[in-house]
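User: Before I run my own analysis I want an independent prediction to cross-check against. Here's the chain; please return only the structure tokens and, at the end, one sentence I can use as a sanity check.
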Amino acid sequence: MALTDIAIAKIKDMILAGTLRPGDRLPKEADLAERLGLSRSSLREAVKALALIRVLDVRQGDGTYVTSLSPALLLDAVAFVVDFHPDAGVLQFFEVRRILEPAAAALAAQRMTDVEELRRLVDALDGLEDLDAVVANDLEFHRRIAAGAGNDVLCSLIDALSGPTVRARTWRGRTQADAIGRTRQQHRAILDAIAAGEPELARSWATVHVAEIEEWLRRTV
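Assistant: Structure tokens:
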């Protein structure tokens, strides 16, 4: 194992053991390197790597801190990486969406106490014709449902995976007859199921919604 990887593993172990907690400042570089039995250069490279994935926050002139370690922060790196995924693999993202988003809709039907923002988005979609505005509304609708599921990890994963599907959603809107109309209909059905507190109905409509786009894309490519 490379020395930098060993250094990363040792810092990770300190965090997992609770020796370093979210918000804690790391000891001075020389002290920490001696404590962990590492060279300062290996420790420095490990800190850089952990800062890139938002585990550590290097503050110039102040020190290095453990971040909040929140799912939204840590999974932000996933969103960065998936942007490099080739367009040919976008079907894989829709397959994952078909697994995650119905689960989020079902949880939202059980846990959301205020659906007014969802209702506002659905009502606004009825008057939209500009495709970019429709896609933006669609993204926000699904983001709100994921947030309403009350699971930060699930919400962050759905948000991270939505980026590669934007182009396909736009393409479908331009080429498939009544794509926008079907989106309106299905969003309202999902909303109604969530508002009624019907998790399995919400799950079913969300599955139909995502699977229909996936199936269109599968036929098209």
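Sanity check: The chain has twelve helices and two strands.
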